[in-house]
Amino acid sequence: MFGNPSLMTRIAVGKLAGLIFGLLGFVMTPYFWPEATMFFRWGILLWYITVGAVIGMFGVMDRHPMFNMPFKWWFRGPWIGGWMNFILALFTYDQLKTIMVGFFGPDGMFTSPFWFVAEGAIVGLVIGYLATRFGGEGPETAGK
Fold first, then answer.
1. pTM: predicted TM-score of the whole model, two decimal places
2. Which of these, 46, 51, 131, lies nearest to 83 by C-alpha position?
């Protein structure tokens, strides 16, 4: 079933893994931030599905086009996941700050919302591995 490289398989696996991470965020957010709105929770769920799809699609590029250097899955996944969560932190800075302060305390070491960039890199690493493991990588995933 998973023997041939396939872009559709990469995207499906990435979205499925993103759905799992998104559901974890959707369910766990009220424990970290009881005042979280349903809009924020649904946003987290849909965000990680989108992150998984982007990581899945990006698997076609196994070489950097400008520098002609390898673009391995263990670099692509964390890079995209970290970048996407950096964008998330910029857009939802105040909400993420409230979550972090509420969970770690006002003087805690991890009160910066930009810790979500590291979390996105870890999630991206997992999604990148799964998408590459089951869907392959490189131009051959796009078909003929």
1. 0.90
2. 51
Cβ–Cβ < 8 Å for 119, 99: no
User: In the chain, where are the structural domains located?
Assistant: 7-138
Structure confidence at residue 4 (pLDDT): 75
Residues whose CB falls within 8 Å of the CB of residue 36, separated by 6 or more in sequence, listed in order: 29, 30, 95, 99
Q: How does pLDDT run across 90-125, given as a tens digit for each residue?
A: 999 998 888 888 878 888 788 889 999 999 999 999
Which amino acid, one-letter code, is at 81?
G
Give the DSSP letter string of 79-108.
Answer: HHHHHHHHHHHHHTHHHHHHHHHHHH-TT-
